[in-house]
Structures are given as structure tokens and as C-alpha cells.
TrEMBL record:
Assigned GO CC terms: cytoplasm
Organism: Tenuibacillus multivorans
Boundaries of every CMP/dCMP-type deaminase domain copy: 5-136
Protein name, per record: ComE operon protein 2
Keyword Zinc (UniProt): yes
Family stated for the protein in its record: Belongs to the cytidine and deoxycytidylate deaminase family.
Example of a GO MF term: dCMP deaminase activity
Amino acid sequence: MERISWDQYFMSQSQLLALRSTCERLAVGATIVREKRVIAGGYNGSVSGSVHCIDEGCKVIDGHCVRTIHAEINAILQCAKFGVPTEGAEIYVTHFPCLNCTKTIIQSGIKKIYYAHDYKNHPYAIELLKESGVEFEQVELDYLHIDTNTKDKMYFISTLLQRLEDKGMDNEELKQLKQEANQLFMNVE
Ligand SMILES: [Zn+2]
Ligand SMILES: [Zn+2]
């Protein structure tokens, strides 16, 4: 088995954290790393002890859910709460940080942002990152490392699709199924 890279390892951790999210709008996870060690993690959710969006619905004001604290801020606050320096650290986030999180990340002394998915990448956030010298780099999750039988699943699905084609399935219908299969295995070789 191929050894997982640090980038994939930390991004997978953020992806797992995202599964803890309590907001239905978007599930985000963030992992703060220093010297190849995880020092904090967070996901987007309500203030501790408050109601969850998944139970009561989102609290939307001006098109945004205002109930949640974003994953990046939660991770940074975890450092604040327990007295762990963020200076010189790196952060792995599942989605490109919003403007507020970008400002908070820069101000916390974090030096590099790794993100898996583009998400409304704000031009001013990018401007601020460039200005402050905080690097940002996209790291796409390679699910082959996490889901150990992805290759078998892909093979199975492509065999099924081939059989449907051989049986003379309607072209449009087949095209649709192929598209759906491709979407399922997006970011996989
Ligand atoms: Zn919400
Ligand atoms: Zn944010």
C-alpha cells in the first residue's frame, strides 16, 4: 500500500471534521498544524450549548446563516482557549476561507493555507493574503488513499456501463449515467 502524504493526511482530517458540522448549508472542517503535528481542529457549528441548525433550521440573516462559528475560527479559538501558539502554523481547510476567516487566519500568524475546494474565493481575501505573504495552495483530496476499494468500485461501475451499452441502452440515458459516475469519482485518476 502506498504511504499517505502529510498533505493528504491533514486534509483527510479536515474532511472528517467537516462530517461533525451542524449547519446544513455547508460542512467545513479545519485542521491547524505545526511542525507536522495537529495542534487544533474545528468544524462549523453553533456556540457551545446552543441549538444546532440541523435540529432547528439555519438562522439566516441577509442570506447567511449567522448561527455558526466557522471551522477556521473554531480551530483558532481552540488554540486561544488552551494557550497554543498559532504563530508560524499552517491550516488545512476543506473550503477556501471566507473573507472574515481569511483576516482571522492572517492575524493569528498562520503562514500557509491549504484548501481542498474553491468556494466563492473572495478577491479581497486573495488580495489580503498576497499582501500579508500568507501562502495558499489547493490540495485536492485523493480518495484512493482513504477509500481503499475505490479502484474496484470504478471498475465495477465501468463494467456495468459497458454492459448497458452492449445491450443497446438509449444513448442519452447512458450519457447521463456516465456523467453521474464521473461525478461520483471526481478528483480520482
Ligand atoms: Zn446554519
Ligand atoms: Zn469563514
